[in-house]
Specification:
Radius of gyration: 20 Å
Structural class: alpha+beta
Order of helices and strands: HEEHEEHH
Distance between the termini: 51 Å
Shape: elongated
Number of strands: 4
Number of helices: 4
Strand content: 5-15%
Strand order of the largest sheet: 1-2
Number of domains: 2
Mean pLDDT: 84
Length: 129
């Protein structure tokens, strides 16, 4: 057996975000003649390529298959909601323990959905000092 690679929550969030926020324009361009042209992979950022799960020759061109965007959005939503719930019910000791990339979204949930701006620092729209 090989060595086990450590996987962080940050890596999982990055990958889910790549899938959730990918769109067709990341992978193709429309020419002046109105034709669709697949971008060379060298012009597609690595982060965007993470959303691609398949490329194959198809009749008349190339088919790019993307990972399930809605599923990734749902997973991110649950993840953000879990952080907000833990903050609201006291299982997360502090807003500081929430990963930096998630703070704005968690703040929005805590304030908008739970109505508890006192749990969110002012820099994120709350009233906590």
């Amino acid at each position: 057996m090989g060595t086990k690679k450590e996987l962080t929550a940050e890596q999982v969030l990055d990958e889910l975000s790549s899938v959730a926020f990918a769109n067709a324009a990341d992978f193709v361009e429309i020419t002046g003649e109105g034709r669709v042209r697949v971008k060379p992979t060298a012009r597609i950022p690595k982060r965007k390529r993470a959303a691609m799960i398949g490329i194959r020759a198809a009749s008349g061109g190339v088919e790019i298959k993307l990972a399930n965007k809605m599923q990734a959005l749902q997973m991110l939503g649950r993840y953000l909601g879990a952080f907000a719930c833990r903050l609201v019910d006291g299982r997360t000791a502090s807003f500081d323990l929430i990963p930096a990339k998630l703070k704005a979204q968690v703040a929005e949930i805590v304030i908008g959905d739970f109505g508890l701006p006192e749990l969110v620092p002012a820099e994120f729209g709350g009233t906590m000092e």
